[in-house]
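Researcher: Here's a chain I'd like modeled. Treat it as a single chain, no partners, no ligands.
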Amino acid sequence: MLEFKKLSWEDRDLYAKYYAASPVHYAEYSFFCLWAWRHAYPIEYAIDSRNDLIWLRSAGPLPGIFGPVGNWQHKLIDWDKAISHFEKGSIIYDVPGDLQHILSRHEGLRFTKDRDQHEYIYRVRDLIALKGKAFAQKRNRVRAFLDGYEWDYYTLTPEFFDEVMDFQERWRVHRDATMTEDEAASLYDEDLAIQEALKNWDSFKFSGGIIKVDEKIIAYTIAQELDANNIDVCFEKAFGEYAGSYQAINYMFLKNSAANYEFANREEDMGEPGLREAKMSYNPVMMLEKYQMEIL
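Model: Modeled as a single isolated chain. Structure tokens:
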């Protein structure tokens, strides 16, 4: 019987070992993502010591089991026993694509691909070079910004944190007129997650960048290292009235602060049409697939 308990800050190092052992490092399962969004999506975890895995359970508005986290390619894992922890009819959410291929050989399981939760992966060197027809529009947008404004780019360091939160307040107020009540609540939760990033900057492998026009931040990025080859773009904001600002902060951050990584993870689109269109327009080289797994 699995014993779930509330995820705490003291669990960070323990969880990090399981996450590091995972064959693929999904942004959603990083400790920072779990911790930063805990106000909106409280997380509990349980250790399956027999199989050396961690299972997650959300106690938020979308309750359910997630995971597992750990080396799910290990040949000694007894998946029949691991799955027996859950009752028939249970649904395990956001099962990694590679794990789905392993578990699809087992009877009594049904999988449904969850496109809204797929994570977008891009080759960093492509988003820096912006070469060829596929990136022509992005290249033109970046050039329009670089040539159209008197701007300054800075690496995001603690001296700018107050200015970032000031920007975030201005950005959210700017959006208030067109937001629904649910969208406003979601942005409030995001504010809390951003504050967690800044408050715990030295506890994770964070990096970031800001663009200033007229001495005020008009765009910023906060990212975290998932592993030596992958960086997760956690937050990216810009004032859209500055033409090309979103494309410019993406380009400048990767060029100045992330060129040593092979891939950039820009997370999922949550099924939002505008967000999906924007993420697809950057030409992802792969998607980290996720599935819902029903125990029959």
